[in-house]
Specification:
Elements (H helix, E strand, L loop, with lengths): L2 H4 L5 H5 L10 H8 L2 H9 L15 H20 L10 H36 L3 H13 L1 H9 L4 H4 L11 E3 L8 H11 L6 E6 L2 H5 L10 E5 L4 E4 L9 H12 L14 H8 L3 E3 L9
Parallel strand pairs: 1-4
Antiparallel strand pairs: 2-3, 2-5, 3-4
The structure holds zinc ion.
Length: 293
């Protein structure tokens, strides 16, 4: 192992991104962060942990930040040593640092997304000004206390703390239809409530046209995720059957839920993408028995 890596902290970070096989390339970390897979890794490692609004309280961001800071410290220590005997970071450590930096940035985007959507839900319900909603989101990111206050707002509660609906025979946690079918909002809803579920085993999606008629009561959901004890998470802003923002959100959610990607085709597309972009209604992963879900 290169010299500087021995001095790196080995915190929970190593648990989050272990090396299950020798030489697991760090580029995988970047890719995982881009695709939201760090969310799935995180829930596997810390089941039941709610997604924190602030990066300062995030079990993904904090160990990544510690690793990143340690790399910086090693670099500064080497630069500050006039004797030149303090080893600087190796090329490999610097390469890892780039991956960590990118993962940090992408994970921070998740915090920004949740804070922004919560602030928007609050502002839409209270007619708050644009300035007020931006300030509210920023405060929640910087200060865990401000985030807790935002989550406790009465106007936010249907989104942030919905009750389980048992009407169809199994517990369903449903994104409020009134949230408008906005893809980013559905991703935020997923992040906020992921910890209330076990391992997700399958997903189904309804028909896009039904989703468009949701205001008439035609469909209550566009995407349902089923966990290993039969609980259902229902999102209304993620769609399927065409190449657009809604289906891209569906792909993101299915990855973050830890569902399989399927085969990577030479075209670069995966089975998962092919299904979500190509079919308006599907079950993922495909049911080998093709029984009705
Ligand atoms: Zn984070």
């Amino acid at each position: 192992m290169p010299e500087t890596q021995k001095t790196m902290p080995d915190p929970a970070w190593a648990d989050l991104w272990p090396a299950p096989r020798p030489g697991r390339p760090w580029s995988e970390l970047r890719q995982a962060a881009r695709e939201g897979r760090l969310v799935a890794d995180w829930h596997a490692r810390w089941p039941g942990t709610a997604f924190p609004l602030s990066p300062a309280a995030c079990p993904v961001c904090r160990p990544l930040r510690a690793w990143h800071d340690a790399l910086d410290a090693a670099r500064y220590a080497a630069e500050a040593d006039p004797s030149g005997r303090t080893p600087g970071p190796t090329a490999e450590a610097i390469e890892i640092g780039f991956a960590v930096e990118e993962a940090l940035r992408d994970h921070r985007d998740l915090h920004v997304l949740v804070a922004r959507e919560l602030a928007d839900v609050w502002a839409d319900a209270t007619d708050a000004t644009l300035t007020a909603r931006v300030e509210r989101a920023r405060a929640a990111l910087d200060d865990p206390g401000a985030g807790a206050l935002l989550l406790a707002e009465a106007a936010v509660r249907p989104f942030a703390d919905p009750a389980w609906d048992e009407a169809d025979g199994r517990p369903v946690l449903r994104e409020p239809a009134g949230s408008g079918g906005i893809t980013e909002r559905s991703k935020a809803f997923f992040l906020l409530h992921r910890h209330r579920f076990g391992a997700f085993v399958a997903a189904t999606t309804g028909d896009y046209e039904e989703v468009q008629r949701r205001s008439e009561g035609a469909a209550s959901a566009s995407l349902r995720l089923y966990d290993d004890v039969g609980r259902v998470l229902e999102l209304v802003g993620t769609t399927a059957g065409y190449g657009g923002e809604g289906p891209r959100g569906t792909v993101w959610v299915l990855r973050a839920a830890g569902l399989p990607e399927g085969i990577h085709w030479p075209s670069g597309e995966t089975d998962l993408e092919h299904t979500v972009f190509g079919q308006r209604a599907f079950r993922w992963p495909p049911d080998p028995d093709e029984r009705a879900w």
